From TrEMBL:
Protein family per UniProt: Belongs to the binding-protein-dependent transport system permease family.
InterPro entries for this protein: MetI-like, MetI-like_sf
The UniProt record lists the keyword Transmembrane helix: yes
Species for this entry: Paenibacillus germinis
Compartments it resides in: Cell membrane
Membrane topology per record: Multi-pass membrane protein
Chain segments annotated as transmembrane: 63-82, 94-114, 126-146, 167-192, 225-246
Keywords assigned: Cell membrane, Membrane, Transmembrane, Transmembrane helix, Transport
Superkingdom of the organism of origin: Bacteria
Span of domain ABC transmembrane type-1: 57-246
Protein name as catalogued: ABC transporter permease subunit
Keyword Nucleotide-binding: no
Length: 261
């Protein structure tokens, strides 16, 4: 496992090392893992040059924030309803909803584009945010976790006069912190790195996200890999921070929601 871990980390080490090198030293062999003359000009050019990298960073942060918050709200509400509310056709509706996971996302791109174009959402961030707010996997994850909460706890709250929303908000939701953090990490990672939807729905360069914006470092003379490495390291930092902060809850959420093994 240690050998496999090192093999996985080697490209990241090379990326970080290359971000402090000039273009001419990038592909020298043998590889200089620690640059002899490290430079910061790559980062200065990325953040302060002509590439609008700070704007791309802000766009990705905005889209990811609204998507993560929206998906947590909708998934937790739907998961609570499917797990704890008894209504006609509940299991059948959940099964049909779950079955939509087998539909490739690419199949829906054309009808979604036509729909968003007719209602004026193409070339806006909402065209990327709205589809991400509703997630089948998130609903399934939250339902699995809500199902582990004893019904006796809900019955006691009903006896005390609590309604369904109060039970959800004050009793059940605080107990699902590991599942919420799991959904947060997975959603954050997916939408921070999302390339396909922004590529299709966003046309103005002022709206581009980081994955699309990285193509700005390729010009008529070819790709400036030193700048691409510096931009990639900068784009990777939020992911590392989020995972480092919430890793303990993430492992607990995966183990408690029935997704392990």
């Amino acid at each position: 496992m240690l050998v496999l871990g090192v093999m996985v980390l080697i490209p990241f080490f090379w990326m970080i090392s290359s971000s402090f090198k000039i273009q001419a030293d990038l592909f020298k062999y043998p590889i200089n893992w620690i640059p002899k003359n490290p430079i910061l000009s790559n980062y200065e050019e990325v953040w302060g040059g002509k590439y609008k990298f700070a704007l791309f960073y802000w766009n990705s942060a905005k889209i990811t924030f609204f998507t993560v918050v929206g998906s947590i709200i909708t998934s937790s509400l739907a998961g609570f309803a499917f797990a704890k509310l008894n209504f006609k056709g509940r299991d059948f509706i959940f099964l049909m909803y779950l079955a939509t996971m087998i539909i490739p996302a690419q199949v829906l791109l054309v009808p979604r584009f036509i729909l968003f174009d007719r209602i004026g959402l193409v070339n806006t961030h909402w065209a990327v945010i709205l589809p991400g707010i509703f997630t089948v996997f998130g609903t399934f994850l939250m339902r699995q976790f809500f199902s582990t909460i004893p019904n006796e706890l809900l019955e006691a709250a009903k006896v005390d006069g609590a309604g369904f929303f109060r039970i959800y908000w004050q009793i059940c939701l605080p107990l699902t912190k590991p599942a919420i953090v799991t959904l947060l990490i997975l959603t954050f990672t997916w939408h921070w790195n999302e390339y396909e939807n922004p590529l299709i729905f966003l046309r103005s360069s002022e709206l581009f996200t980081l994955p699309i914006g990285l193509s700005s470092f390729v010009d008529e003379y070819g790709a400036n890999y030193s700048l691409i490495m510096a931009a990639s390291v900068s784009a990777l930092l939020p992911l590392i921070i989020v995972v480092a902060i919430f890793q303990r809850f993430f492992v607990e959420g995966i183990a408690s929601s029935g997704l392990k093994g």
